[in-house]
Specification:
By secondary structure, this protein is mainly alpha-helical. It has helices spanning about 5-15, 20-25, 35-40, 55-70, 85-95, 100-110, 115-120, 135-145.
């Protein structure tokens, strides 16, 4: 599953438009144009298609958090982390100010019953004994359930 696909799925589920995407990038000082956003959102077989990198998608998610919740007073230390579906899930949780119960309800919208303890495993640190990897299908179901 590509970052472009995840981005377009998030846009569809949350009814975001290209301007929202552009604003999210601008909030993290990413130099991006409307044409760049258009190219990211094109079909993969289009010659102008641009593949969205992990770093580029993470910048969008960070900007989306600021877009939805406002700037943070905390100084965050920039550290390189492995970008994964778990990180995407966590950043969407933060951006949309979701509680565990909200996420469980979102999964129920897509006919998936998940317990609070199962859910917490996806938000644990990689390497933790109870850490669980978020699969592509689980992330798709979460995004679909946000409709």
């Amino acid at each position: 599953m590509t970052n472009n696909y995840i981005l377009t799925s998030i846009m569809a589920s949350l009814k975001l438009n290209k301007v929202d995407i552009l604003k999210s990038y601008k909030l993290v000082d990413k130099k991006i144009t409307q044409d760049d956003v258009d190219d990211i959102l094109r079909e993969p077989n289009d010659e102008k298609f641009i593949l969205l990198s992990d770093e580029g998608f993470e910048l969008f998610l960070n900007g989306f958090i600021v877009y939805k919740r406002g700037p943070s007073d905390k100084k965050t230390k920039k550290q390189k982390i492995y970008f994964s579906n778990n990180i995407i899930l966590k950043k969407l949780k933060i951006a949309l100010d979701l509680k565990d119960e909200d996420i469980i309800e979102i999964f129920k919208n897509d006919s998936l019953d998940i317990t609070k303890s199962q859910l917490s495993a996806y938000f644990r640190r990689d390497g933790h004994i109870n850490y669980r990897k978020c699969s592509d299908s689980l992330l798709k179901r979460f995004i679909k359930g946000m409709n």
